[in-house]
Design brief:
There is one protein chain. This protein folds into 2 domains: 124 residues, Rhodanese-like domain (Oxidized Rhodanese, domain 1), CATH 3.40.250; 119 residues, Oxidized Rhodanese, domain 1 (3-Layer(aba) Sandwich), CATH 3.40.250.10. 29% of the residues lie in helices and 12% in strands. It has 11 helices and 10 strands. It has a 5-stranded parallel β-sheet with strand order 1-5-4-2-3. α5 crosses α10.
Length: 285
């Protein structure tokens, strides 16, 4: 059985020793970029290798391509091969933020056509809470040959967002906190605001108070109400830099809504061009 969205600790634990199961620790803090790797070296799920959001899952910044630009396909393919991922590999990714960082690697794998990838429900905090085995120090996997099967329809670029927004042909979903969506504050990017016409779905609304995903049925009902008459393929998700937006894409997939598209450049890219429109204040239907 392949796990393609979310996996529980009980489902993962029996497979820790299996060569075709690859576990990746993606803990990360935007303010302290080295924190996640430091924590990984102290304690992590047995067999897990560490992936760094800035160093491994993002391309160099140009000043106009956002804070976490996607690497090129060849670069991603080479890295996934180094991580020991091939078509027979079940990938499990975890973090300490309810999947808010782990979802980025999940989405990148989906974008390159690898379906057997899932985010660990509750992440490392849930694993520790249950008293499950823990290792220290760095671990790695034997490289394998990753073959990409690109799914370009899962991604949109800024010009397409601009065109679809102006035509009203797509729903644009902002995954950031409400105060950032309204433009009342912006802790990471020089300009506050949102893409005009976007509606807000803060990614943390996908989680319960325990940091685990809410039930697929509840998520489905909420997303169906939010999306309304738009199809999933006409739904575009963004966030600050193309990371936590992946959590909304993951949560919709977990709820059975497939084909949602990610604007990976997100607000940090959009707001870097003064010719692109911005909007602030409460949403006006």
């Amino acid at each position: 059985m392949d796990y393609t969205t979310v996996i529980t600790t009980n489902q993962l634990e029996p497979h820790l020793e299996e060569a075709n199961w690859a576990i990746f620790d993606s803990r990360f803090d935007l303010v302290q970029p080295h924190w996640g790797e430091e924590q990984y070296l102290i304690e992590h799920i047995p067999g897990a290798a560490y992936v760094h959001l800035d160093d491994n899952l993002s391309a160099p910044r140009s000043g106009t391509n956002g804070r976490h630009p996607l690497p090129g396909i060849e670069v991603i393919t080479k890295y996934f091969s180094e991580l020991g991922i091939d078509e027979d590999t079940q990938v499990v990714i975890y973090d300490s933020r309810g999947g808010g960082i782990a979802a980025r690697l999940w989405w990148m794998l989906k974008y390159l056509g690898h379906e057997a990838a899932a985010v660990l429900d509750g992440g490392f905090p849930e694993w520790k809470r249950l008293g499950l085995p823990i290792h220290a120090n760095r671990e790695s996997r034997i490289p394998r040959q990753f073959v990409p099967r690109l799914k370009p329809d899962l991604r949109v670029v800024a010009d397409e967002v601009l065109e679809r927004r102006s035509q009203g042909s797509s729903l644009v979903l902002d995954s950031r906190a409400p105060e950032r969506y309204r433009g009342e504050e912006e802790p990471f990017d020089p300009i506050a605001g949102r893409i005009p016409g976007a509606i807000n779905r803060f990614w943390q609304m996908n989680l319960g108070v325990d940091g685990c995903f809410r039930s697929p049925d509840i998520l489905r009902a909420e997303f169906d109400t939010l999306i309304g008459g738009f199809s999933s393929t006409d739904t575009i998700v963004y966030c600050g830099s193309g990371v936590t937006g992946c959590h909304n894409v993951l949560s919709m997939a977990y709820a059975g809504i497939q084909g949602v598209r990610l604007y990976a450049g997100s607000w940090s890219e959009w707001s870097s061009d003064p010719n692109r429109p911005i909007e602030t204040g409460p949403y006006l239907d």
